[in-house]
Specification:
The complex is a heterotrimer of chains A (about 400), B (about 240) and C (about 300). Chain A is an all-alpha fold. Helices cover about 75% and strands about 5% of the residues of chain A. Chain A has helices at about 15-30, 45-50, 55-70, 75-105, 120-140, 140-160, 170-175, 180-210, 215-230, 230-250, 250-255, 265-285, 290-300, 305-340, 345-355, 360-390; strands at about 30-35, 45, 115. Chain A has a three-stranded antiparallel sheet. In chain B, about 80% of the residues lie in helices and about 0% in strands. Chain B has eleven helices and no strands. Chain B has helices spanning about 1-10, 10-25, 30-35, 50-80, 85-100, 100-115, 115-140, 145-155, 160-190, 200-210, 215-240. Chain C is α/β, with parallel strands linked by helices and about 300 residues long. In chain C, strands 6-7-8-3-9-10 form a six-stranded mixed sheet, sandwiched between helices. In chain C, strands 2-1-4-5 form a four-stranded antiparallel sheet, covered by helices on one side. Chain C is about 40% helix and about 25% strand. Chain C has helices spanning about 40-45, 70-75, 90-95, 100, 105-120, 125-130, 140-150, 170-185, 195-200, 220-225, 230-235, 240-250, 270-280, 300-305; strands at about 1-10, 15-25, 30-35, 55-60, 65, 75-80, 155-160, 190-195, 205-210, 215-220, 265, 285-290, 295-300. Chain C contains 14 helices and 13 strands. The chains are: A mainly alpha (about 400), B mainly alpha (about 240), C alpha/beta (about 300). At the A-B interface, helix 1, helix 5, helix 9, helix 10 and helix 14 of A face helix 5, helix 6, helix 9, helix 10 and helix 11 of B.
Chain lengths: ~400, ~240, ~300
């Protein structure tokens, strides 16, 4: 721990910054926020006042241990300990916040709103990043990361099921709209899955064609690139007129729900936005297959179709998958905006909340959207890594 | 002949069309009235399109400038010996942050600073920071090792190496990051109209709320042209920056 | 000119340069010769402080290098490396002018110096001044790299395997040019290589290194005729030793009086291996030797080659 000259060496500056940042935030900012009703803004309440003595002490202890860990020489055991401590801290901070809310709402009027404060968010973020840092220093593989994430998610779910979070304002908001939320979440995921699926069905053959013919490639990419720069809400808006005209002209379409606003323009726009990454990654992936390998296949007597299916496709798959990951995350984000044209999804809560200046309603839409995006990115990244390892064998 | 090439450039024509539409949308009034007979007024008139455009341009420019300066500075810090420890974490943050839906980031800043231009600028700045950091780090690290060694061995100071060798060579990649950042910023600023910022998205949003489709169309066409024009300008800029 | 005094450099506990001592006089062409990992590059880079010294002292021109600000030191020393490292975004002129401009030379002096150096390397200034590195061939890039190292007229030139990445024909031409420049400018050159032929051709003194230490220090002839131990013998190559000896000795050493013989004469400067090659090709056992003006100086005979 100390160098030969008797100085104390900082071995992990990132961890030190995170631990210090979390501590400072806990000291100066509010852990939770107490508002007597929905209309008034909340009073920030510090960690030591809000949380129970044991919880606050636990958080303090874990933070101190992580701070100390920054001064210890790196090693596998240290980093594993860092990950474990940070995970415990994250769960404890979540539990403490929920518990604080429960304690404060005991005997208080039902209109009281207890929401999460800046200190909470900073502590949670610093703890999460400390886990990421530990995993990076361990050089953890895809499976290890998946297991860690799974363990933490399991912990959070356990806390939620036990009702720890129920007194928080965001949980109350959720409780009063349970069905609506489930509906919005499923609609959101359906929009994403549908548009990504359609984009792959349309974009994959286009990408194959572009890889084969440079004459098609340039204008196609020029058009798709142009499309990509158009702001999403503008594209939604531009589709309203042609689609409502179409629905008016073809009543059968109107019967199945196609109209100027709603799901139809949303899906069409999402598919259009998803086309560029799909087409580009397909074309690049196929172009990246070593010509020598294809020639060897032809020399062995494989037909073009066999070569495509057995040689080109598997070798191009990692790049295709990377494109899929980009497209899915992008679609989740765009689907939030689609709520503005009546497509439903998590964005309905966001914009409804903004309209009423109800912060918790906004968070009810925004937070799940963010976590959905993070989860999709993480899962697809893991799948991609596993796929790559599988193909390399 | 340079004159003729200038005349043929898409930037010029798109720019002229955009300016014409923005300043003289009322010229299309009879056409729009015929297409949407029941809507009155048929051309958005709460603010001039020019004012909306300037407001959005201001938001995007201010946020992008700030994001460029801070992003490049952070990238420089993280590629020096002093900041090497933070490089992996900064990269992870940039990657993680870019998965956040921009609309969600915008919505979350409102409870912190209220409605209007402030949350929009903050969201634009934070979100715009990420692609610039990612590209600036990649660009700086992409400078060939031999070039860096020669520069150090010849006696260029650290600041001279950064200013005369590393930054000029990283510039094309950094510019590509700024381009991405600005494109996203234009889109997010458009949504910013839902939290009270004055942009070309305001007619779109107002039109959707009041069911006045011509407003939606006018705003959408203008902001689409704005985005395309900006992208074309950046493409031209990238062409100029290339080493002959 | 350079004094390396008991210098050590360790990485992770292992000494890469082990109490090395070496003294290089002004005007010498000293080659550090050895295989990968012997510490020759590390030694070189400690001289211009790209790598910090663990213990010992290095003096350049009598001054301890650690007492001079690093950048000032490096601007006094020319540095040429294998990967060349020309700045891709600057023209040839700007590249060569780097250190002179850092030293605030006047514009006119800089331009003149660039032209002078380009001519020295047989590159037409009018054509090459405004070219960019990617427009040059590998050999041209390396020439510009060395010209850049010489630009501020440093007393000392450090070169780290500068010709290793070039094709053999270009390498031969570059070696010849470097030898010529060394003779005409009289600069001190410290040159790192793993190629024994290159060392024998260019050096006035060779330091053979192994495991961070100097195994033998001597002139090319001393190394060939009196190898200090088996390592040196193996390194120099047991076979072809005779031919290497011939390549290091000059015609001037074996000149004798005699009537002019037929065929193109050799110059005094030619090596004995060139003489042997010419004799074999012409099936003659004696050749004429002339000076630069064509005046007959004497002959060289086959028998003299093996004396």
């Amino acid at each position: 721990m100390t160098s030969a000259r008797g100085r104390i060496d900082i071995h992990n500056r990132v961890l030190l910054t995170l631990a210090a940042g979390g501590t400072v935030a806990a000291a100066v900012a509010g852990f939770v926020s107490y508002a007597p009703n929905r209309l008034l803004s909340g009073q920030p309440i510090a960690l030591w006042e809000a949380a129970s003595g044991r919880a606050a002490a636990g958080i303090g202890l874990l933070a101190a241990m992580l701070l100390a860990a920054a001064f210890i020489s790196p090693g596998k055991m240290l980093h594993n300990a860092q990950a474990a401590l940070a995970a415990a801290l994250l769960l404890l901070v979540l539990a403490a916040a929920g518990q604080a809310a429960s304690a404060m709402s005991l005997g208080a009027k039902p209109a009281v709103r207890i929401s999460l404060g800046s200190a909470f968010w900073t502590l949670a973020a610093c703890a999460a990043l400390a886990i990421v840092d530990a995993l990076q220093r361990l050089g953890a593989g895809a499976v290890a990361r998946l297991l860690t994430a799974g363990a933490i998610v399991a912990g959070v779910v356990a806390l939620a099921v036990a009702g720890i979070f129920d007194a928080l304002s965001i949980a109350r908001e959720y409780a009063s709209r349970r069905l609506l939320f489930a509906d919005a979440l499923t609609r959101h995921m359906a929009l994403v899955a549908g548009s990504v699926g359609l984009a792959v069905v349309i974009g994959f053959p286009l990408g194959v064609a572009a890889a084969r013919s440079p004459r098609l490639e340039n204008p196609l990419f020029a058009a798709l690139n142009l499309l990509q720069t158009i702001p999403s809400i503008a594209l939604f808006g531009l589709l309203i007129v042609p689609l409502s005209g179409l629905a008016a002209a073809v009543p059968q379409l109107a019967a199945i729900g196609v109209g100027g606003i709603g799901v139809a323009p949303a899906i069409i726009a999402l598919v259009l936005y998803a086309l560029l990454p799909v087409v580009r990654n397909t074309a690049v992936g196929l172009a990246g297959v070593d010509g020598a390998v294809i020639e060897a296949g032809r020399g062995m007597g494989l037909t073009s179709r066999q070569i495509f299916r057995q040689v080109e496709l598997p070798l191009a798959l990692p790049v295709l998958f990377a494109g899929l990951r980009i497209v899915t995350v992008q679609a989740i984000g765009l689907a939030v905006v689609a709520a503005l044209i009546g497509a439903g999804g998590l964005g309905t809560f966001v914009f409804e909340g903004l309209g009423q200046y109800a912060v918790d309603l906004v968070l009810l839409g925004a937070l799940p959207a963010i976590f959905l995006a993070l989860a999709a990115d993480f899962i697809l990244q893991t799948l991609s890594a596993v796929l790559r390892r599988h193909l390399a064998q | 002949m340079p004159g003729r090439r200038f005349l043929a450039s898409p930037v010029l024509w798109v720019g002229l069309f955009f300016a014409a539409l923005m300043l003289r949308m009322d010229a299309l009034q009879p056409l729009l009235q015929r297409a949407f007979p029941g809507v009155q007024p048929v051309v958005y008139n709460r603010d001039s399109f020019f004012t909306l455009f300037l407001s959005q341009l201001g938001l995007v420019a201010a946020a992008s400038l700030g994001a460029s300066l801070v992003g490049v500075a952070l990238a420089i810090f993280v590629t020096r010996p002093a900041g090497r420890d933070f490089r992996a974490m900064v990269n992870a943050l940039a990657t993680i942050g870019q998965t956040f839906p921009p609309a969600a980031v915008l919505a979350i800043t409102v409870p912190m600073v209220g409605f209007g231009a402030q949350p929009t600028i903050i969201a634009l700045f934070l979100y715009g920071l990420l692609p610039i950091i990612e590209n600036a780090v990649a660009g700086l690290e992409g400078v060939a090792g031999g070039v860096r060694e020669a520069a150090e061995g010849m006696g260029l100071s650290a600041w001279q190496r950064l200013r005369d060798v590393e930054l000029p060579l990283a510039a094309p990649v950094i510019l590509a990051g700024v381009r991405v950042s600005v494109t996203i910023a234009i889109g997010t600023a458009t949504i910013g109209s839902t939290v009270g910022a004055l942009t070309l998205g305001t007619p779109i949003f107002d039109g959707l709320v009041a069911n006045k489709i011509p407003f939606v169309l006018e705003g959408a066409v203008l902001v689409a042209l704005f985005a395309i024009l900006t992208d074309l300008l950046f493409a031209r800029l990238e062409g100029w920056l290339k080493v002959p | 000119m350079i004094e390396i005094d008991e210098v050590t450099k360790s990485y992770g506990g292992r000494p890469v340069v082990d109490r090395l001592s070496l003294s290089v006089g002004g005007g010498a062409f000293c080659v550090l010769l050895g295989s990968s990992g012997c510490g020759k590059s590390t030694t070189l880079r400690m001289i211009n402080r790209l790598i910090p010294i663990d213990s010992g002292v290095i003096r350049v021109g009598g001054e301890d290098v650690t007492q001079i600000p690093a950048e000032a030191l490096r601007r006094r020393i020319g540095y040429a490396i294998q990967s060349i490292g020309l700045f891709p975004h600057w023209t040839v002129e700007d590249n060569i002018a780097t250190v002179p401009r850092l030293l605030n030379w006047r514009q006119a002096r800089v331009r003149g110096r660039v032209a002078e150096l380009l001519e020295l390397f047989r590159l037409d200034p009018a054509i090459y001044r405004s070219k960019f590195p990617h427009q040059l061939s590998g050999g041209e890039q390396q020439r510009v790299g060395v010209a850049r190292a010489l630009a501020a007229d440093p007393e000392l030139l450090l070169m780290d395997e500068p010709f290793a990445a070039v094709d053999p024909i270009t390498r031969d031409a570059l070696q010849a040019e470097l030898a010529r420049i060394h003779r005409s400018t009289g600069k001190t050159i410290l040159f790192v290589t793993h190629d024994i032929e290159e060392a024998l051709r260019l050096a006035t003194v060779i330091a053979i290194m192994d495991s961070g230490r100097i195994v033998q220090l001597g002139t090319p002839i001393e190394i060939l005729e009196q190898p200090a131990n088996d390592f040196v013998r193996d390194f120099v190559g047991r076979q072809g030793l005779g031919l290497k000896l011939l390549s290091v000795r000059k015609v001037a050493d074996r000149l004798r009086c005699g009537e002019p013989a037929e065929g193109e004469p050799l110059s005094l400067d030619a090596s004995l291996s060139e003489a042997l090659s010419a004799m074999t090709a012409r099936r003659a056992d004696r050749l004429s030797v002339c000076d630069d003006e064509g005046r007959h100086l004497g002959i060289i005979a086959l028998a003299d080659l093996v004396r």
